[in-house]
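U., I forgot to send this yesterday:
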Amino acid sequence: MGLRQIREQEDEILRKKSKEVSIDDITSERNQHLIEDMLDTMYHFGGVGLAAVQVGVLKQIIVIDVEDDKGPYVLINPKITKTKGTRECQEGCLSFPNEFGKVMRPEEVHVEFYDKNAKLQKLKAKELLAQAICHEVDHLNGTLFTDLVIPGTLEYVEPK
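Result:
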């Protein structure tokens, strides 16, 4: 489909709350095109996940691919219903190129969402997938990973 511009750290849209997508509108051509563009953009820039707000669209849509045998995942109107445990994770973000820091994330999450066909789904995720879901859901709420970074662990890594 196409690549979208990724909004970066100083862009005020990243602090805004995304709006739910109406069930009737999930399968619209516009939203399906957005999902394809988001996947293309995420893969092009080497990301694990991408929220619609990161491409300037305030809709509760996220895409994730942790390179397991089930992805890519498309989660629309995701709601985390349960978390279990905590772990320290190294994290980065396409909206903060070359910046990485340690954050605390749940070891496991349960999430309810609509898929791109407007079917209600439930998913239990662990480790990297759980981390990615939490990171992207935070984006939908205007929270950035830099808000959660353990003090003293945020660093800039020169691109290779």
